[in-house]
Design goal:
There is one protein chain. With 261 residues, this protein is α/β, with parallel strands linked by helices. It has helices spanning 31-44, 69-72, 77-95, 112-119, 146-154, 156-165, 171-176, 189-201, 205-218, 223-237, 241-252; strands at 7-12, 15-20, 52-57, 62-64, 101-105, 108-110, 122-126, 130-132, 169-170, 182-184. 48% of the residues lie in helices and 16% in strands. The strands form two sheets. The chain has a six-stranded mixed sheet, with helices on both faces. Helix 3 (77-95) runs parallel beside helix 4 (112-119) and helix 4 (112-119) crosses helix 5 (146-154). The longest helix has 19 residues, at 77-95.
Length: 261
């Protein structure tokens, strides 16, 4: 009997849904899963038929419970270093993907699971979601970008509180502190994410790519440099066929059909 794939892929319109598929292990991240997710992210950046990505977890219990601690217990110190290097690079590749990424947080998201959500552009949580960077309770620290992305999203003081204490937060507290964008009923999670992705998919793909680039890089610098980044990103959209299509569709009172050209 063939082993179940650790990541399931499904095309929904112009969106690609990646489902972490280790439900018996709370969709925890092992070396194999990191490799497969990395391959999928690497491939999707070149697909013009895909305009957004949704990441979720199989089953109802967990989005991703973080690193697979059973695998971790078997690793040498050098293997642990390799794991951290691999997961950190994966989160960076998700953050820098040229398409928007939505995390559909459908349950427990701890440690690397929260870091996976943080690397995504938008986070939608089920009411059953529980999030937290709990690494200090294992005498380590977040190693896949959590110490850097969390304070940028919710502010330094709140990030310090959550990381220092390793405290878990439920969906509604996550929403109140800006950790997630939206909370919905469990059975509405994928519908909500697909609707949001559908709105994104109607827009100009080059424009969205450049907007993501400008936001991601501009937020890291002073406003004058950020405005220069925005200006350069805007210039990329000017000679595109999509920009002309947008103007033409507006004039003709119809929905534009963008091709990413």
């Amino acid at each position: 009997m063939d082993q179940e794939p650790v990541v399931l892929t499904k095309k929904e319109g112009s969106s690609l849904v990646l489902t972490l598929n280790r439900p018996k292990a709370m969709n925890s991240l092992n070396f194999e899963m990191l490799k497969v997710i990395g391959e999928e992210i690497g491939a999707v950046q070149y697909r013009k038929d895909i305009r957004s990505v949704i990441i979720t977890g199989a089953g109802e219990r967990a989005f991703c419970a973080g690193a697979d601690l059973k695998e971790r217990a078997t690793l040498s110190e050098d293997d642990v270093k390799r794991f951290i290097f691999t997961i950190r690079n994966l989160m960076t590749s998700i953050e820098n993907l040229n398409k928007p990424v939505i995390a559909a947080v459908n349950g427990v998201a701890l440690g690397g699971g929260t870091e996976l959500a943080l690397a995504s552009d938008i986070r939608v949580a089920s009411e059953t979601a529980v999030m937290g960077l709990t690494e200090t309770r294992l005498a380590i620290i977040p190693g896949a970008g959590g110490t850097q992305r969390l304070p940028r999203i919710i502010g330094v003081a709140r990030a310090k509180e959550l990381i220092f204490t390793g405290r878990r937060v439920d969906a509604h507290e996550s929403l109140s502190m800006g950790l997630v964008n939206r909370v919905c009923l469990p059975d509405q999670l994928m519908k909500t994410c697909l609707e949001m992705a559908g709105m994104i998919n109607e827009t100009g793909p080059i424009a969205v790519e450049m907007a993501k680039y400008a936001i991601n890089h501009g937020i890291e610098t002073d406003i004058a440099t950020g405005l220069a980044i925005e200006s350069n990103a805007y210039r990329v959209t000017i000679p595109t066929e999509d920009r002309i299509e947008g103007l033409t569709a507006f004039r003709e009172k119809r929905k534009p059909v963008y091709k990413g050209q």
